[in-house]
Design a protein that fits this description.
Elements: H1 2-21, H2 26-72, H3 76-103, H4 113-123, H5 127-155, H6 159-192
């Protein structure tokens, strides 16, 4: 019985070596193309993943700074801006987290070092200095965010992330206008005093 198993294995090995030495079958070409397609798809989605990670970090920063503004600000417009940032970005963060889970994209669950430094720097300020710095930061940040989200909405490769970015653009534009108005209210207060 051992002889039969041995002969069967030898015959199977000979068959394998014969087929591998001869012409390549179309299946191996298809398999190679499929593997290349996977690699290319992954590379095409790399920018989408980078966008998602940056958006998540930015969203975490907005929530953290929004909470800080609600406690440290002496200007009602800044306090209201902070509350809006906390609420809107918390909601957007949850949506992005769910979307990333579907796409197998890992998102940060805490602030980046750069974002932590921004929070630390702003935490050192108080009163009108805090308000001015926060308003300036929100204007600058939202101008950059709008550019980043617009780029993703126009050039992103993942349809769901593109749609999410597109849906957030009007909200970011609203935040930018709120930040500009809050900054103006600080300037007007300063002129009045």
């Amino acid at each position: 019985m051992n002889t039969r198993i041995y002969l069967s294995l030898v015959a199977f090995a000979a068959l394998l070596s014969f087929t591998s030495c001869g012409n390549k079958s179309p299946d191996s070409t298809e398999a190679a193309e499929a593997e290349n397609d996977k690699k290319l798809d992954t590379l095409d989605l790399e920018a989408d993943g980078e966008f998602a990670v940056a958006a998540a970090d930015g969203g975490l920063l907005e929530v953290t700074l929004g909470k800080l503004a609600q406690t440290k600000s002496v200007t009602p417009a800044i306090q209201e801006l902070g509350k809006t940032m906390e609420l809107d970005h918390s909601k957007a963060n949850e949506e992005l987290k769910a979307l990333a889970g579907q796409k197998n994209i890992t998102l940060p669950d805490s602030l980046s070092e750069k974002s932590r430094r921004m929070v630390d720097d702003l935490s050192q300020k108080a009163g009108k200095d805090f308000d001015k710095a926060y308003a300036d930061m929100m204007v600058d940040d939202h101008q950059k965010d709008i550019d980043t989200f617009r780029k993703e909405s126009e050039k992103g490769n993942d349809g769901d992330l593109k749609a999410w970015a597109t849906a957030k653009l009007p909200i970011l534009a609203h935040h930018l206008e709120m930040a500009k108005l809050a900054r103006e209210s600080i300037k007007e207060e300063k002129k009045a005093n």
